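Dear support,

Our group has been running a series of protein-ligand predictions, and this particular one with iron/sulfur cluster is the one our PI (initials K.S.) wants archived with full inputs and outputs. We had some confusion internally about which version of the output was final, so please treat the block below as the authoritative record. The input we submitted was:
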Amino acid sequence: MSTPDKLINFAKRPKIAVHKFSSCDGCQLALINDAVSLLELATMVDIVHFAEAGPLDEFAEVDLAIIEGSVNTHHDVHRIEMVRAKAKYVLSVGACALTGGIQALRNFTDEKELRHWQHDVYPEETEVIIEGDLATAKPISAYVKVDFELPGCPINTGQILRAIRQILFGVEPEKNVDPVCTTCKHAGVTCVMVAKNEPCLGPVVADGCDAICPKLGRGCYGCYGPAKYANMDAMIAKLKEMGLSDEQIKHKFHHINSQAITFHGVVARTISQ
Ligand code: SF4
Ligand code: SF4
Ligand code: SF4
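Confirmed final output from the archive:
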């Protein structure tokens, strides 16, 4: 990650673009959902490309390109390289852009197996895998330099609006280094692992969502990705103590952020011990 050190010319109004790659659009909606703040932002910057909201100028030169989604096709690779070449800063948002997202679960299998499964879900004649597919779903950072990242599935609306302002004013966007447990403690939330013996990944997952799931009485499933100082060995030992099998624990981490190194690599190592 970088500090915003390239000058942005406010005399000309900064230009922003929002790009979608393979994704569900949920992170773009998180930005649109707070319409008042978005309109306020539009009084300070020119939003030149944001297909979900209207403006279209995909390869315009911009100060900030915000990217949702993962890279899945050769066409995606071409597009992200073009976007990067035209942007002073690139901000990746959401689990799809940061780790490949739920679609990266296909990285654990091969095309033949995928085609077999697709016929369990779709009619025989449906061609789900399209021409030009890459063998794996990968994050944006696998193909181009990314300056800043915001985790979440979806991202938090307040966080993205703050990050945009911070980047434009030359400040590095804040990062959450604490796990979800910290928010639970500050907010006085009853721990679901202690009170209900319900598995919760909060001790190893980055905060940023305001502990939504524990506040609703359910365990965290890890949509913000790994916390900075995640102790995976202790987490796995706790889940085993609660009666989960190795396979069940593996599935807990092979989910939205399955390709995050902390979840992908450490789980395989710990379970094989
Ligand atoms: S990170 Fe989640 S909400 Fe955002 S685009 Fe991907 S699947 Fe949708
Ligand atoms: S509910 Fe989950 S996130 Fe909250 S304190 Fe307990 S283990 Fe941590
Ligand atoms: S508690 Fe966990 S799963 Fe729920 S929104 Fe927060 S990070 Fe995502």
